[in-house]
Write a structure and sequence with these properties.
single chain, alpha+beta, four-stranded antiparallel beta sheet, 19 helices, about 15% strand
């Protein structure tokens, strides 16, 4: 349902800009929802557990399935979905017959009344629920007008195919106090289809352009330093930005790089591809280490797909998980994660996106984007990590964490911003 949040938000903003008198009534001095707590590694673990508990295993295509989620977990998911919109946060309550959604988007460019507060309900229903009781600031919106807003926004943002897929998948929404059940039809490509709903048509075109560029570069040189690949890739982004925007192009490029480096495949971004159009195996390194390149770009891609707190939390979660029978907890990998997060932040910030894009297009050295990290502790089992550093709230852990931040602050690209 993330595309409904996104579609409604942007159409409301467009309408308020077009009709200023409505904007005065729709905007507020105070946010209806305040939630400044960033995502933590514990939130990531909880989200993973929710998916694991609900994802059908060995389900036959076309079979009926049920996704059950508690109120506090809905709130976690909704908070993530809406944080992909600028300055936005949400709160979801499961009532007796409906989901009650409150959301706030902050518009810092305005001198006063900077908060766009929205409240609506999604009732239990057969098929996709129809929005009810929409209120934008002080403006109540009739249900028929609200539904027109949704359908117009979906069409405007090129999300029609995604909405039709959702209609063909969701059979019923059931709501009881504290619990939501989504009854749906399982498709083999359901998850990939759902992910594609986050992208507009323009974003999908950009994503395919960078996918093609990387594939062609891979035919010439499939291994080497990530720094050597950055120049040609961001040169293309700079050229494409003349007709779109630096933020849009940077986001598309980081999404492709993040998916490629993480080994998750590209189907969620560009759909299924024949073998001759798939990307080569990822072999780009930082400081001579392939894992640094993977961590760096995966984190940057997470910023593009969510926000910096999600990227930070996922990196930390992975290291903690690795300490329990995996490759071990590594501050070295954590440094690469955080470098990638900083990289993504700069490229997606309206104030710095174009400037950083232009700089990267001219070429960079590894030391411009990745601090020294090989001397940091790595490969620790859970027992060794606990013995030496306690947990992530321990002063011993924070000492090393702060040192990573200090090195990042001194790294040329991040030092200048």
């Amino acid at each position: 349902m993330g595309f409904i949040f996104k579609s409604l938000f942007w159409l409301i903003v467009l309408l308020l800009l077009a009709v200023p008198v409505l904007g005065w009534l729709a905007l507020s001095d105070q946010p209806a929802v305040q939630r400044d707590t960033p995502f933590s590694h514990r939130d990531i673990a909880q989200a993973k557990a929710i998916v694991s508990a609900n994802l059908p295993r060995d389900a036959a295509p076309g079979s009926a399935q049920v996704f059950r989620v508690r109120e506090q977990d809905i709130d976690l998911v909704a908070g993530y979905m809406i944080r992909q919109l600028p300055g936005a946060t949400a709160d979801v309550h499961v009532g007796e017959y409906s989901l009650i959604v409150k959301a706030t988007a902050t518009l810092p460019v305005l001198p006063r009344k900077q908060h766009l507060n929205v409240r609506f309900e999604l009732p239990a229903s057969v098929g996709i629920p129809q929005i009810q009781g929409l209120q934008i600031g002080q403006l109540p919106v009739p249900d028929s007008a609200a539904r027109w807003l949704i359908s117009s926004a979906i069409a405007y943002l090129g999300q029609g195919e995604q909405y039709r897929f959702a209609e063909s998948t969701v059979n019923e929404i059931r709501v009881s106090p504290g619990l939501l059940e989504v009854h749906y039809i399982w498709h083999e490509n359901l998850i990939d289809k759902a992910r594609q709903g986050y992208f507009s048509e323009g974003e999908r075109v950009a994503i395919k352009a960078y996918h093609t560029k990387i594939r062609r570069m891979g035919e010439q040189a499939s291994r080497g330093s990530l720094a050597d690949a950055i120049g040609p890739l961001f040169s293309l982004a700079a050229n494409r930005s003349r007709k779109t925007s630096a933020v849009v192009e940077n986001r598309a490029l980081l999404l492709v790089l993040g998916s490629w480096s993480s080994g998750r495949g590209m189907s969620a971004l560009v759909g299924e591809l024949p073998p001759d159009q798939r990307l080569p195996a990822f072999r780009l390194s930082l400081d001579g280490r392939l894992d640094f390149g993977q961590h760096f770009l995966t984190s940057a891609g997470l910023v593009a797909g969510g926000d910096e707190s999600l990227s930070y939390a996922v990196g930390l979660y992975k290291e903690i998980a690795d300490s329990d029978g995996g490759s071990g907890f590594s501050f070295t990998d954590l440094a690469a994660d955080r470098a990638g997060t900083r990289f993504g932040e700069l490229l997606l910030n309206d104030r710095t996106a174009e400037e950083v894009q232009q700089r990267l297009a001219k070429g960079v050295m590894e030391s411009d984007i990745m601090p020294r990290a090989r001397d940091l502790p790595e490969g620790m089992s859970m027992a060794e990590f606990a013995s030496r550093f306690g947990d992530v709230d321990d002063p011993r852990y924070r000492t090393v964490s702060d040192e990573i931040d200090r090195r990042l602050d001194a790294t040329p690209l991040y030092r200048q911003h």
